[in-house]
Design a protein that fits this description.
two-stranded antiparallel sheet, 16% strand, Heat Shock Protein 90, five-stranded mixed beta sheet
Length: 243
């Protein structure tokens, strides 16, 4: 009898644990869909205020930006829902490598630009941190594809991830024209820049832009003890309409 009771108790615990994980996953999916919907509405508002019709190419770019956000979150949820994944953290380096391959294959305005990834190991984040981190990288890579080489020449984008004193550092580096001297990425810019700033604030992460004669480096540093607040945290409004 004791064995039967113990077996029943173990099964009940496993069932409760499964229900908890399912509830957490559903909550995370709902939050992330709300986040993407909010960003899409902000983008629609920006386009409406521009007061001019979009060209076919501009419309394609806008739709592909939305698709990239959805695919990023979808791929992350597939990873988290796989057996044995997400219980002890998410291997962000592994996921970013897959994200880079996906963006290079699916974004039409990538052209012949090469997106590579370098993982130095130790980039483990909590599941609730993984989504904003992935969306930040997706936005930074998309911005680099759009603006790094205005002439349309093929460039290179490097995404890297490494551990740092219990936290981690993620960098997105391109070999393009960089930022103009009058442009402040921490206050200026359109939706793309506001998304990155808002998500970095949500993570409690430090965001640094280093623009040189050749290329732009964006560095995101997440400390070991940073608090993570709940999605959504909307980006600030305002600033010129430049992504």
């Amino acid at each position: 009898m004791d064995v039967e009771h113990r077996g029943f108790g173990d099964a009940a615990v496993r069932h409760v644990g499964s229900d908890d994980r399912l509830s957490e996953a559903q909550h995370r999916i709902a939050n992330n869909l709300a986040l993407i919907a909010g960003y899409t509405r902000l983008q629609a508002t920006r386009l409406h205020k521009a007061g001019r019709p979009l060209s076919a190419r501009e419309a394609c770019i806008v739709l592909e930006e939305v698709a990239a956000r959805i695919e990023t979150v979808g791929e992350l949820h597939r990873l988290l829902s796989a057996p044995g994944h997400g219980d002890s953290g998410v291997d962000l380096g592994r996921f970013l490598a897959k994200l880079c391959d996906s963006l290079m294959e699916t974004v039409s305005f990538a052209g012949d630009t090469v997106i590579t990834h370098r993982d130095l190991g130790g980039c483990i984040v909590r599941p609730d941190q993984a989504t904003p981190m992935a969306l930040i990288v997706s936005e930074l890579v998309t911005n680099a594809l759009k603006y790094a080489h205005p002439s349309g020449v093929a460039g290179r984008i490097l995404v890297s991830c490494r551990s740092n004193a219990g936290g981690l550092v993620v960098e997105v580096v391109d070999d393009g024209v960089g930022l103009s001297e009058t442009f402040d990425p921490l206050t200026d810019g359109g939706l793309g820049f506001r998304v990155v700033r808002g998500l970095a604030r949500q993570l409690g992460a430090d965001l640094v832009y280093e623009s040189g004669d050749i290329g732009l480096t964006v560095r995101l540093t997440l400390g070991a003890d940073d608090d993570h607040r709940v999605i959504p945290l909307w980006p600030e409004r305002g600033g010129p309409d430049r992504d």
